[in-house]
């Protein structure tokens, strides 16, 4: 009878024999290779079987819980019974948001002089912020929340008039209660010096005077104040070139009254102007070019005693201009340049000079560049005259 050992014993015996066949004192690489080879030969079949029997484990990708959908405010809100009082409430309602695990509630934010503040939290689809002045306008937005702590995109802004239970005549409020007019005419890329978003708008008006503008940017979860300016233009450098960002502008006066927000502007973040490649080498003082041809466009908007001007210079000649100075003359002695961009601005009496910067010193045939400035005026502020580029008269567009 032939006795057959179990395969495990055969493998173990073969491995042991291979190990014993190597001298104990062997320390050379060849001896180690012999041991490894013998053991591998003996165990190879079993190892392959074990590997083949081991299932491959697939690690699932992490689960990302999406935020709720953006609330959509409605215009057909029905207010609840309201008390007989001159104190007003805002009536807000919206369509329910959706979420993969369920919406747990909503937060309501109100525009104040310090920005948007949370004034209500609710699990329903309506809210009635109170403590307001009857008949005045207030601006709100709403976000949805879910059980994972996610916050939806903010709703569009909604401005509504505070109402009361009855049509009462509230006591006159002391001081100035008239808000500035709504900023209009938002336009992108009116100041093109730096990397980021730059935009302008038409100045607001007010019975006592506009003191400034608050600019709000829409984020993934809120309307956040991006900055404040006293001029009808704004630059936001906290952006990524090539992406669009949404803004609204709110005017304010000395009494703390706020205008309604402007219509939203979707503005593209630009890379800005860098030095040309190869960099031009303008002479310290540009040479007169009486034979050069140029056209100048002048576009200004005014408010109160101030104005903002955009100047477009076009090389209509056949030669490249390396280094330029644009000169012109104000018609009103009360007109002053207070702030300029895209050039070095100087003024002597009514004469104004704008000198090129290193990155825009080269003006090729057919090329246009844009510069601009803010100014003050004590009179009507008519457009300047006598535009000249490097002492050569320019036509006006």
3D architecture notes:
This protein has four domains: 7-53, no CATH class; 72-161, Immunoglobulins (Immunoglobulin-like); 184-268, Sandwich (Immunoglobulin-like); 294-396, Immunoglobulin-like (Sandwich), CATH 2.60.40. It has two helices and 28 strands. Helices cover 10% and strands 38% of the residues. The strands form eight sheets. Strands 21-25-18-17-28 form a five-stranded mixed sheet, with no helix packed on it. A five-stranded antiparallel sheet has the order 22-23-20-26-27, with no helix packed on it. The protein has helices spanning 7-20, 29-53, and strands spanning 72-73, 87-88, 92-95, 103-112, 115-122, 126-127, 132-133, 137-146, 158-161, 184-188, 197-202, 210-218, 223-229, 233-236, 244-253, 265-268, 294-303, 306-315, 321-322, 325-329, 336-341, 344-348, 351-355, 362-363, 368-376, 385-389, 392-393, 395-396. With 397 residues, the chain is mostly beta strands. Mean pLDDT is 80; it is low at 1-53 and 274-291. The protein is flat, with a radius of gyration of 37 Å. A hairpin with a 2-residue loop joins strand 4 (103-112) and strand 5 (115-122).
